[in-house]
Amino acid sequence: FVDALLAAEDDGFFEHSGIAFLSLARAVSELIITGSKQSGGSTITMQVARNFFLTLDQTFIRKFTEILLALEIEQRLSKEAILELYVNRVFLGHRSYGFETAAQTYYGRSLSELTIAEHAMLAGVPQAPSRNNPLSNPERSELRRNWILGRMLALDMIDRSTYEQAIATRDNASFNGLKVEVDADYVAEMARQFAVEQLGDKAYNDGYIIHTTVDGVLQQAARDAVLKGLITYDTRHGWRGPEQRHSPLEDESPEERETRWAQVLRAMPIIADLQPAIVTAVQTDGVIVRLKDDATGFLSWQDDLRQIRRFLNEDLRSERASSVDALLTVGDLIRVSATQVST
After folding, report:
1. Residues with Cβ < 8 Å from 151, sequence gap 6 or more?
2. 7, 62, 239, 271: which has the highest count of C-beta atoms within 10 A?
3. How far apart are CA 88 and CA 314, in angstroms?
């Protein structure tokens, strides 16, 4: 696992003094030329400094402070201690902090029990944990996994046979975390931050139970009211298109495509009574969709789709579509209610 992490984040970790000057210079020059961040220049030590002491603001002052802190950390801690801090504290999506927790969340097994392909998959998550984890975006996560495996091969961390076997492995991540009884993400995050401020690493390792003053019934009622209001507002202003697109790939078989779509749907939450569905076929009289529970359904053009008008801006909607394929294509991920879909 350490090899996968170093290949992904900082292959010179055990050689540098906390700063990778060439990588940092490249990142700064790209920022100046393009005006946006193109590649990372942060070492693992710099990420530890940022995660423990700084905000995520993209400013030169924050970056300069990060560099100074990284140099100080290198003076005070061993490489092994720095790596341990990073591995145990980095955020990896779906309320998972640290790679051991992430291994349990995504694969239901300990980190030491995972395969090389799964190690590489997790090692790719820190770059964009909420957006590019194996549940939220399995396709992009697999591309990054394969890039990391290629880096491991180039750095002689694995041999060609191991690389080819790992890159051919289809990922089977699924959510194995705790089921949420009350949707109160912001309160949970505030409680986590408070616990870390008061207890440090013990907050993660000593089994503390945190009680808050949130009334579960009132919290759920408030959440439901906000969701209902948002859905009503969004419906009134027009359809904004599919939530995601997972178009068929040229080199995949129908079985591989179905497996990929099933994985995508497993990762998508049900919002209010709107469940995720992927369009699997477009017909003149409607579309066939695959649902989260692997069932199939049908959305009728006459009853469900014909009245849809696209969002253009806050004050304007388009005219009604002239045909089904003007609205949807195969691979579109949309939201449907149970009353809309006939199975």
Report:
1. 7, 8, 11
2. 7
3. 45
CATH number for the domain whose boundaries are 244-337: 2.40.50.140
The correct CATH number of 2-167 out of 3.40.109.10, 2.60.40.2310, 1.10.8.640, 1.10.3810.10 is 1.10.3810.10
- Look at residue 36 in the predicted model and tell me its pLDDT: 46
What is the total residue count of the chain? 343
All structural domains of the chain with their residue ranges = 2-167, 185-236, 244-337
Listing DSSP states for 296-325 in one string gives EEEEEIIIIITT--BEEETTEEPPPPSSGG
Confidence (pLDDT) at 234: 81
| Two structure tokens written together for 283 | 């017909």
Nearest residue to 51 via CA among 7, 105, 88: 88
Tell which residue, 135, 53, 139, has the closest CA to residue 93: 135
Q: Are residues 19 and 46 in contact, defined by beta-carbon separation less than 8 angstroms?
A: yes
3-state secondary structure string across 43-105: CHHHHHHHHHHCCCCCCHHHHHHHHHHHHHHHHHCCHHHHHHHHHHHCECCCCCECHHHHHHH
Q: pTM (2 decimals)?
A: 0.59
CA-to-CA distance for 237 and 256, rounded, in angstroms? 37
Reported as a single tens digit per residue, the pLDDT across 62-85 is: 778 888 999 999 999 999 999 999
For the beta carbon of residue 340, count every other beta carbon within 10 angstroms. 18
